[in-house]
Amino acid sequence: MNFSEEDIHNKLEEIKHPFINCSLTELGIVKNISINDSNMVATFALPFPNIPIKDTLISSVKTALEKLGAIVEIKITTMGQEELQNFLDLEKKNWK
Fold it and tell me: What is the three-state SS of the chain?
C-alpha cells in the first residue's frame, strides 16, 4: 500500500461538489472507504436516485483515489432521511 488513511482523507477533502461549496465527504455523499491493501471500496450515498451528476461525482473520487495508486470499486446507496436532511441543510447554506 503506497498511501495512508490520512492521504485518502486529505484527497477526499479536496473534492468539492460542483454546485455546493462543500466537500463530498462533508455532504455525506462519500459515505465510506474501505481499504484492503491497494484495493478500495468507495460507498456513495446519493441524496436521490439517478441524480444527473452522479457519474461526475463518482469519476472525481475514483480518479483522485486512483492517482494514489488504488484500485477502486464503487458501491452506491441512497441517503437515509437524517443524512438527506443534513445534505439539504448544507446545500441551502452553501449553494454557489
Answer: CCCCHHHHHHHHHHCECCCECCECCCCCCEEEEEEECCEEEEEEEECCCCCCCHHHHHHHHHHHHHHCCCEEEEEEEECCHHHHHHHHHHHHHHEC
Q: What is the pLDDT along the chain (96 residues), one digit of tens a residue?
A: 577 888 888 999 999 999 999 999 999 999 999 988 889 999 999 999 889 999 999 999 999 999 988 899 999 999 999 999 999 999 999 998
Say if CB 62 and CB 55 are below 8 A apart: no
